[in-house]
Structures are given as structure tokens and as C-alpha cells.
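Data availability (excerpt). The following record was deposited with the supplementary files.
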Amino acid sequence: MKSDLEEIVKNFISAIEDKKDFNDLVQFYHSNIEQIEFPNLLLKNKTTRNLNDLKEAFVKGKSVLQGEKYNILNSYILENKVIIEAEWTGVLGIPVGIKKAGDELKANFAQFYEFEDGKIVRQRNYDCFEQF
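Predicted structure:
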């Protein structure tokens, strides 16, 4: 079961990178999903999202980013949790700070995924962006 959870996270991240349609992500989320993103250079305040909020963020993200890629450096499994440490690179679709559309934005991520019934029920993101 533990390696299954890690595989689910890897498949989930691949679906994020493909960024085709939000319906490609819904299959990974529990109906009671709670995603928390802690403050970072793009987000001033801690934000908690449910499934509908995640869909809105996905749509907004498609206009901000032309593409994104995760390089998973480490992953850890503890009971029903998977923790990843990743280097993230996004290609901007719009200007952000001093960056122009087409420029890369980089960050280091720590993400905590909790599972219930094989679905992500809780996700916490700690995103550390390079200055832009």
C-alpha cells in the first residue's frame, strides 16, 4: 500500500505537468479534499482550498504558466502520508515581477499528501520561490 501511495503522488504530479484539463486531476482527490498553501512570494496569506477552489486555481494557473516541471529529489512515506521534496520550474505565460512571458520561474517545494480511501484528502504546500 505504501508504494502505491507514492505512485499515486507521482501520477498526480505528472497530471499537473500535463495541465490539460482539471478533470485529469479530480480522480486523485477525495471529495473532502483540503489543500493548504502556505505564504510565499506569489501568495501573501495562507490559503485553504476545497475541490471547487482547486478547480478555479487550476484555470488561473493555466493562464499564468505555459508549462511546469517537477524534479522530485526525495520522497518519504509515513503511514497514510507521502512527503516530497522537489525542484520546480515553471515557464511563465504572463509577466511576473521582473520576469517576462517565456521566462522560467524556479522554486523548491515540500509537499505533504495525506490519503483516505486511496485519494488525496489533505495536501499542504510549502513553496519557496527564487526572487523574481
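Summary of structural features: Helices lie at 2-18, 23-26, 51-64.
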